[in-house]
Amino acid sequence: MGWVKSVISKSDLVLEVLDSREPMLTRSRKIENMVKFRKDLLLVLNKADLVPMEVLKMWKRYFENQGLKTVFVSSREHQGTKILRDSIKELLRKNEGVVGVIGYPKTGKSSVINVLKGHHAASTSSIPMTTGFTKSLQLIKIDSRIYAIDSPGVIPPDGDSFEKALRGSRPEDLEDPVKVAIMLIERIMKFDPDTLSLTYKVQFSTPMDLLEKIALKRGWVYKSDREPNVDQASVQLIRDYHEGKIAYYNIPPGFENDKTRDI
Ligand SMILES: Nc1nc2c(ncn2[C@@H]2O[C@H](COP(=O)(O)OP(=O)(O)O)[C@@H](O)[C@H]2O)c(=O)[nH]1
Ligand SMILES: [Mg+2]
Q1: Global pTM value
Q2: Which end of the chain is more exposed for a tag (fewer CB within 10 A), N or C?
Q3: What is the pLDDT of residues 179-202, one digit of tens each?
Q4: 3-class SS at 189?
């Protein structure tokens, strides 16, 4: 995590990019504690296109109740980028500075930088890292005098295998992708019972049944017994999740009774 410290020390403001579907699981308290003053931290709930507006607002309230400034954006749909830009300027307190972008893998750090880049696409420069690093940090121009640091690494996914998967660990590196995929399916269905049948265009009864149907639909079978290859289906499902193809949401703690009827 040495490079994270380096990015933070070079930044006037740190954006922590979270997945709007799993804000709690994709935030890193370790990183937040490294950013000493909370005014210098902005939580960016990315992939907001996958979550209902009412739920996004709950999450914003939840974090802001804890004193954490929060915006939600969809870098895919280019939504919320004006608010993000304005919040960056407000927190920098002037129209210049360096913005470090950090987060677990697959939360959308590069995508967020891309939308901020806009027409400044060609301008980059670099600053040397602290001793011990051979690479320098790339500075990407996002406004006339504001630069973003595209981190040379990411926060390594930690926790148990399920948490690691949701924190962007490569699904093909998982020891038991089927176990993780089943847990993910169960979690998704708790709030959004229909989203998976809509995504995969199949009807299913159990998580294993869904994995078998995904495998059969793509013609994936084990060579040994021609049974549906649920390992491959599980890796695919986790990859689809990372790539923002599965819409679902979580309700922040304490907001369960807030759930409005139109979600
Ligand atoms: N649905 C959706 N998917 C997104 C969004 N932003 C990024 N993604 C997808 O999430 C995956 C990871 O994005 P990337 O920017 O590479 O994440 P990074 O690893 O944090 O730099 C990619 O497949 C993106 O297409 C978003 O706002 N909405
Ligand atoms: Mg990236």
Answers
A1: 0.93
A2: N
A3: 999 999 999 999 888 999 999 999
A4: helix
